């Protein structure tokens, strides 16, 4: 789904103290649950920290286009219409699939390990990650990030959204000297990635790590509340598909889809304001390891109880969480999933925000929820029921 907020103050010496206090007031006065998104949007606008509208935020998505190469190169091997005869068919054109892959001018085409950043519902790759993993990973020796801007902000059919992930995995590997890639996904992006791994088997052998943030692999009981402001208008297709026990979710999870297809690190918060349930083995983000690839299920509050990194962390602020970042880096720099045994937990749990991020990044991350609410309100046509399953999903 999309982001909310965490209850912490960003404590860094170069942060403006007045803005910090104002943010703390906004954060601690907001109720929990989906309604906090609406309240926080209003409060951020009233505070003067955000004054824009949908047009202003949409221009933020376009900002990323100034950072990418002009034309994406052709793959070195066939990846469309199928890389393997076992892959599901694409409904989107190759031109659309390829243009959604945003390759920054800094990309090394295989000299460093590629990492694909997959956004969540009502967002773009640039908006979702500019205030966190784009900044944190760019220039690192162990990661070379690209991002996806899926059409319609991932509000359309989630099955089609997954096509963009499947294509990106094979495409980025192909233009990177056939190097393996890793995927960092947030919210719906995790469902799309798991769907791609399930129904495009050619992707599995070239994904070194799947790092999952705030996943709703089992859907969420909160999904339809997002559209309750105007129930007579219906909702967006992918939001309905993320309802708990939707057709889409059940298709994904059956026949072993509730187990990892590649080494997977799933990071989630029990206080998630969008995805519930999100605690214990019943958490929507919890993945099984039936294929023995290695899975780390990391509930922030269980690992860092009563500490800043394990406090009240919302759906979106998992992306700026210090423990989540430490696990992501550990996964990217080791074989298999991220391991808590290799992390200095006393130090990491005491950090309220990932090292390297500041107040501006916090605000960028927070604005994602504003963009999401506006994008959902602008999306048409709204629907009352989820899209039918693709024929290939009916068979497996």
From TrEMBL:
Signal peptide bounds: none
Record flagged with keyword Hydrolase: yes
Annotated keywords: Hydrolase
Keyword Repeat set for record: no
Gene Ontology MF terms: hydrolase activity
Annotated PANTHER family: LIPASE B
Protein name: Alpha/beta-hydrolase
Organism listed in the record: Microthyrium microscopicum
């Amino acid at each position: 789904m999309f982001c909310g907020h965490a209850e912490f103050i960003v404590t860094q010496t170069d942060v403006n103290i007045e803005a910090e206090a104002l943010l703390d007031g906004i954060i601690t006065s907001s109720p929990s649950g989906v309604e906090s998104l609406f309240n926080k949007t209003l409060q951020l606008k009233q505070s003067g920290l955000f004054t824009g509208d949908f047009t202003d935020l949409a221009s933020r998505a376009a900002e990323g286009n100034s950072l990418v190469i002009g034309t994406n190169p052709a793959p070195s091997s066939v990846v469309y219409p199928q890389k393997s005869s076992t892959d599901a068919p694409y409904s989107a054109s190759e031109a659309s699939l390829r243009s959604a892959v945003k390759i920054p001018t800094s990309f090394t085409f295989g000299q460093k390990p590629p990492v694909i950043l997959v956004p969540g519902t009502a967002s773009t790759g640039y908006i979702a990650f500019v205030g966190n993993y784009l900044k944190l990973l760019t220039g690192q020796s162990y990661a070379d990030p690209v991002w996806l801007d899926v059409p319609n902000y991932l509000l359309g059919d989630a099955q089609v959204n997954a096509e963009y992930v499947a294509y990106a995995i094979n495409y980025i590997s192909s233009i990177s000297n056939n190097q393996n890639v890793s995927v960092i996904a947030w919210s719906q992006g995790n469902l799309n990635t798991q769907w791609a791994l399930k129904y495009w088997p050619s992707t599995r052998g070239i994904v070194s790590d799947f790092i999952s943030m705030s996943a709703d692999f089992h859907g969420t009981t909160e999904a339809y509340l997002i559209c309750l402001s105007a129930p007579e208008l219906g909702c967006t297709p992918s939001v309905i598909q993320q309802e708990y026990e939707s057709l889409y979710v059940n298709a994904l999870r059956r026949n072993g889809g509730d187990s990892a297809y590649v080494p997977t690190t799933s990071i989630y918060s029990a206080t998630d304001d969008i995805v519930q349930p999100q605690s214990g083995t019943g958490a929507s983000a919890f993945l099984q390891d039936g294929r023995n690839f290695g899975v780390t299920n990391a509930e922030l509050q269980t690992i860092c109880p009563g500490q800043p990194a394990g406090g009240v962390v919302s759906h979106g602020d998992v992306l700026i969480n210090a423990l989540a970042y430490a696990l992501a880096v550990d996964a990217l720099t080791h074989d298999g999933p991220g391991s808590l045994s290799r992390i200095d937990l006393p130090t990491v749990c005491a950090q309220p925000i990932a090292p390297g991020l500041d107040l501006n990044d916090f605000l960028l991350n927070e604005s994602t929820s504003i963009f999401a609410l506006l994008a959902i309100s602008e999306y048409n046509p709204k629907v009352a029921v989820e899209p039918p399953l693709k024929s290939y999903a009916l068979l497996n």
